[in-house]
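Dear colleagues,

As part of the handover before I leave the project, I'm documenting each prediction I ran so the next person doesn't have to rerun anything. This entry is a single chain, and its sequence is reproduced below.
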Amino acid sequence: LVLSLAWLGPALGDEDKDEEVVEEEEKEKKEDEVLSDEIKEEDNVLVLHEHNFAHALSEHQLLLVEFYAPWCGHCQQLAPAFAQAATELRNESSPARLGKVDATAQTALATEFGITSYPTLKLFRDGNRTHPLAYTGRMDSQGIVRWIQRRAGPSTTLLQDTDAAAAFVNSQDLVVVGFFKDPRGEAAQAFFEVAAEMVDMTFGMAEAAELFQAYGLSADTVCLFKKFDERQTNFPVDPAQGLDMAELTRMLRVHSLQLVMEFTNETSNQIFAAKIPHHMLLFLNKSSSEQLSLRDGFRAAAGGFRGEVLFVVVDVTGHGADVLPFFGMTPADAPTLRLVKMENNRKYQMEQDDFSDSAIRTFIQAVLDGKVKPHLLSAEPPEDWDTRPVKVLVGKTFEQVAFDETKNVFVKFYAPWCPHCQAMAAAWEELAERYKDREDIVIAEMDSTANELENITIHGFPTLHYFPAGPGRMMVEYKSTRDVETFSKFLDNGGTLPVEPPVSEAREQPPCPGQSPAPAG
């Protein structure tokens, strides 16, 4: 653009204008645009900044705003879905619009709304900027649209009589109805809030006495109606404690699932959103009728563990093929059983697979009682694992290397697919090269997708741990900048960073979700 304007200069009769003047004018023009409260759009998403934010709030009844960073990979991944949702809402003449704020440039807005990670989405209603609602939906276009629609209209359908209630209950495979004698009471209001959050379920509300009688109820109750398993599940409201929104949400999630789920692309979100603490998995090949018959015993064992253990069938030749590496398995290992403790991804395996319902129940109860040790993955150590500057650790060799009392061992726990790990790979190699002649320092790495440790759980990648020499089996997590010089200061200072005066008061950039606050490279 600068060159184009420079070429046009003589034609416009302004022969003395050079490129520096043109650049200055362009800069001033951009500043004027930012200072304006005019609202521009990109793919039906409002482009917001501190000078037009108030204008946008006054113009739109509901405004969902994404606070993003241009460099954030999660934000870049969300952008197409966010734009698609914005287009869908605009096409249906919704009172809601979507907007975005570059929080790295609009620091005043980022500070005002407490932005600490990217992307962060907040919903502003009726021009109120003091109490925005945090977005809690899925990060895809359909999830965003559903979440907004639930807040743009009533969260529940009022059921006036038995005909309306029967039609509502039969309208879908799964519906929730709240029976409340006082629809303006605290319990009913809490129910409405649950309905507003659980956008993937359909909610109704009944207050008529004839409806209480028709469904066998005498007091305030939330009922889940299903066309599978138990047809009606009741959750009575405690008259003393009221309605616990978190517990109701959990129970609806648990009981909305089939007693035995099949792991597919369509059900995976449901399976993990239910937050059931243990998953019992039956891996089988659905093309084998003999293996399919194993589902009967599996289902028979499931009833006694609802809410505590979720039973899932995984087809090793279908959608389940993608999760086999997580268990160190191949399709040839089917049929087999695994139990997973979700809080730490610990996996448990029968000594010998027994698919009878009694054996499955006995095994699960033993795991819940802490009587079974986890089954830990370990790759085989490469032949040259200790000949290169970066030592390659696996589950089988970790203990003897990391807790060698004569060595200070600095370990990178990584995933091969992780872009942050890839970004710091060169720095880790350079660090190892720098310390390769030090007898007391070992620079190592371990692929945490192929290796597991009994007492160390890795929650994100890369994770860096320092194991100092000496007795005591100490472990220090490294949380600072990931570059060679800072790594070296940390090692040379015995596993801590020397205290240095702050260089500036600059506002620290929040990380992408799932990424350590330390830069990745």
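The chain has four domains: 40-150, 157-256, 261-369, 391-493. The first strand starts at residue 40 and ends at 42.

All the best with the project,
I.
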